[in-house]
């Protein structure tokens, strides 16, 4: 089984076509938010390294992940600069924040849930890169396809760490977050972001 097939089986749903259609129309915004996502992913990995200093496997995997995410961040910025797109502040998408509301507060539940959420974020990113790549120009399509391998590995790293630290099956917890993630991906969003749901229909006022 290849990594993308595994990821598609891990996720409960595909990205809605309506999101893809909106992404094609809003490629500048897609790139700006993509840059923010890479930076936040690196920051999350670093935060975990500072929080769990006694876990060598986590430190090694998160250190590598943070470096890769920052390289991706720089690559997105370079593409934006070439296209005259300004990197600017954006309001946060609801996606990650809504999932993190369900993280348990005591350890090791807190760590396990954080790792599971990380796996879903990386898996969804990988799935969306693959989904949108065929619709983009050659440069952007090639770049997004080049990210698939690392994003798939990040998903596997997060999920593997969650399983390791739980010391027992995590199927029920994964199933819980799979349902939450599916609802966020399929529920209409008023703002377009890399991890947003399909665009909400705005009723015209006469």
TrEMBL record:
Q: Which SUPFAM superfamilies does this one have? A: Ferritin-like
Question: Pfam families under this entry?
Answer: MiaE (PF06175)
Which terms in the Gene Ontology molecular function aspect does this entry carry? tRNA 2-(methylsulfanyl)-N(6)-isopentenyladenosine(37) hydroxylase activity
| Gene3D superfamilies documented for this protein | 1.20.1260.10
What is the name attached to this protein's record? tRNA isopentenyl-2-thiomethyl-A-37 hydroxylase MiaE
Taxonomically, the superkingdom here is Bacteria
BP GO annotations: tRNA modification
InterPro entries noted in UniProt: Ferritin-like, Ferritin-like_SF, tRNA-Hydrxlase_MiaE
